[in-house]
TrEMBL record:
It comes from Paenibacillus artemisiicola. It holds the Pfam family BPD_transp_1. Belongs to the binding-protein-dependent transport system permease family. CysTW subfamily. Its main location: membrane. This is ABC transporter permease.
Length: 251
């Protein structure tokens, strides 16, 4: 923990206290609260929210159906199998699919819609991000649904509840821990995306992750890049606290 968690965080905090000239300063923190970085922060949270929301909208029904199909472990393996492939390879695969002469535009042209600019758009960025993160949403929701006691569903039906009422009053509240875990697993890494942002969205989507990449690799302003990373760490810690499962004790 000291070597791989606390030491890197301490180094980031240390680097954030120096400017590009190497002089000790707190100006990086003041600079972070300028309109430019505030817009980046709002943009990062907005896109992370969209990615998490779409992952939940697709992932929860998928996990629910998985628990009610035969050979569900095999289907689950097939769903998480793409997550074993290198992220860069998957990103480049989508560049080919969404390109001007890619498969997506070929289908649109066959349907008579014509070729469209799919790549380097907000749609392509969110779509690819959801595709990459959705296994991390399905797995915790699937585990929560598997642990659900079937007798509770039978009791709900016996008491006259409809399918929707059973889901709203019984299934979803009892699987909320899996939903929270899935949202954590998607939202937190989505906040710091930079490679997918750069390759799929181009310059249309600017997030804190791409700003950190630019400061460390292009402008060589490690202090400002570390300062952004500090605020990302704080934001992630707050999100984990808000979405964590609280254990209530009674006397």
């Amino acid at each position: 923990m000291l070597l791989f968690v606390f030491a890197p965080i301490a180094l980031i905090l240390y680097d954030s206290l120096f400017d590009v000239e190497g002089a000790f300063t707190f100006s990086n923190y003041a600079h972070f609260f300028t309109p430019v970085y505030m817009r980046m922060t709002l943009s990062s949270f907005w896109y992370a929210f969209l990615i998490t929301a779409f992952s939940l909208l697709v992932g929860y029904p998928a996990a629910y159906l998985l628990t009610r199909t035969k050979h569900k472990q095999l289907w689950l393996l097939l769903l998480i199998l793409p997550s074993w492939i290198n992220l860069l390879l998957k990103t480049y695969a989508f560049i080919g699919l969404f390109g001007t002469y890619g498969a997506a535009n070929a289908i649109l042209e066959t349907l008579g819609i014509g070729r469209q600019q799919i790549l380097f758009t907000d749609f392509s960025f969110v779509f690819v991000s959801v595709y990459i993160f959705i296994p991390f949403m399905i797995l915790p929701v699937f585990n929560a649904l598997e642990e659900l006691n079937p007798s509770l569903l039978d009791a709900s039906r016996d008491l006259g509840a409809s399918t929707w009422t059973t889901f709203r009053r019984v299934v979803f509240p009892l699987t909320l821990s899996g939903v929270k875990s899935g949202c954590q697993a998607v939202f937190i890494p989505a906040l710091s995306l930079f490679m997918i942002t750069r390759l799929i969205a181009g310059s249309r989507v600017i997030t804190l992750g791409t700003a950190i990449e630019q400061h460390f690799l292009v402008t060589q302003d490690w202090g400002m890049g570390a300062t952004i990373a500090v605020f990302l760490i704080i934001a992630m810690a707050v999100i984990m606290l808000l979405t964590g499962n609280r254990v209530r004790t009674r006397r």
